Amino acid sequence: MTSSQPSRRAVLTVTTAAGSVGALTACSPFQDFTGAQGADPSPVATDGTPVRVGKLSDVPVGGSASGEANGQKILVYRPDETTVLAYSAVCTHQGCAVTATDSEFACPCHNSTFALEDGTVTGGPAPAPLPRYAAAIDGDWITVTA
User: 3-class secondary structure for the chain?
Assistant: First the structure.
């Protein structure tokens, strides 16, 4: 007659394997981010003061630029004469600095790309869109609250 209870060695092997999976999951760069490719970006919660990040004339309609607001790296896109949009310049994949190009925001580390219009993921391993900051046109200036 065989015992229906597993051996001590079998229990330790299963427990060790499960613990390894849990430890690997805890180290995953994806666990802290929610969303998926194409998901809408979430606004960054800020209670700061709008900061001038650049001249409006430096970002033509349809153009993008990178900058800094209150110590935060940001990306700016100007879709039309009366609108500016700002996003975090930190890639949602592994935190590399994202840069502005003529057609998209791009992460040079692992080739993630993001749409200028809304910060959504358009390619690469990034698991979530770029978080969005409040941005406005203030006379000749672009202001961002970061």
Answer: CCCCCCCHHHHHHHHHHHHHHHHHHHCCCCCCCCCCCCCCCCECCCCCCCEEEEEHHHCCCCCEEEEEECCEEEEEEEEECCEEEEEECECCCCCCECEECCCCEECCCCCCEECCCCCCEEECCCCCCCCEEEEEEECCEEEEEC
> How do residues 42-87 score in pLDDT, each as one tens digit?
555 556 789 999 999 999 999 999 999 999 999 999 999 999 999 9
The rounded radius of gyration (Å) of the Cα atoms in the chain is: 22
Place of tokens 């153009």: 63
Single-letter amino acid, residue 79: P
Q: What is the pTM of this model?
A: 0.70
End-to-end CA separation in angstroms for the chain: 70
pLDDT by residue (tens digit) across 84-100?
Answer: 999 999 999 999 999 99
* Rounded-to-integer distance, Cα 134 and Cα 136, Å: 7
Q: Measured in whole angstroms, how far is the alpha carbon of residue 137 from the centre of its chain?
A: 23
All structural domains of the chain? 51-145 (2.102.10.10)
